[in-house]
Amino acid sequence: LSRLAHGLWECGECGLVDERGFDDDHWVRQAHRVRDERVRRPSQSKFRVVAVVVYERGDGTVSHVIGHNDEAACLKNSICAERAAFVQLCMLPQSACSRVTAVYIASDAAEPITPGALCREFMMSSPLTSTDTRIVMEGGGRRLDLRLAGLYPHASPYIRLTAEEQAAAGRRLGPAVRPFPAAHEQQAWEGAVAAAQRDARPLHAIGYGACVVFEDGSDARAWQWKALEYSCSLDAVCLLAPALAARRDGGVEPRVLCLADQHGVCHAPHATARAILVEHGYGDVRVLVHDSDGHAHTPTAAELLPTAPTAFDAFLACGGGAGEA
After folding, report:
1. Structure pTM?
2. SS3 of 315, please?
3. What tens digit of pLDDT does each residue of 9-49 get?
4. CA–CA gap between residue 205 and residue 226 (Å, rounded)
5. DSSP string over 267-310
6. Cα separation of the two ends of the chain
């Protein structure tokens, strides 16, 4: 290796640049520089986010990719900076990217903002990350340094598995999962498993159903609607939103919620549902979860999205929000 500049080295054999000498300050400055240089803002929110993903190659040298957020008129068809960066890693040969060492995030907010739920889930799903991968956020001169596991607790037992591996894991784990002791929990579990049988379109090996049990003992059920383009699928928990709102309007609150697959394994709600539950005032509802050993847990929805993004005012200041009716 020959030194090109402070923190920067070049391999004489292959010509690849090695960036292993750079520290957090360098990567944070780079994230802010890229954000400042971006003239075309996201079309709907105008709120810019940049993610710098630093990774190791197979030989131990270091490089990076950069992603930024962008939006479509349909809000659901938008992409975050972290996912935009991570998909670039998929184009690299396996020997060219062995693991992600850190993700650095900068935005238009005057405070550090944490990744959204979808970004957390996507990063946790990557074979290039671990639960200990650092996520560093900086804004307004303040910095947060967190670990991926702390941002996305109770990830699905299937989180890094292929479709075939998920099917095998479900068949193995289903008979071994622990029951939930309370009657209303059992009601939610049984209702979710029954609903999952309706998610039978053969586009993926796993079907999901959801059931929410209310304070008065009634329940509501829904199941995932799979679409050929996976991201167009409808989440089972999110499909319970009209029932949750209608019962709240009538003064009845949810008591427990369950998302389960056809094998009887309970999963914490996926990313979209975590965000919807927390942002729409259902953070206190208990959810049923099985871990990879089949043990039962009952966290609240809010506990599934710790340090949730809070840059609402900065988002509106950039031009996002309702605007003129």
Report:
1. 0.92
2. helix
3. 444 444 457 888 899 999 999 999 999 999 999 999 999 99
4. 11
5. E---HHHHHHHHHTT-TT-EEEEE-TT--EE--BTGGGSTT---
6. 60
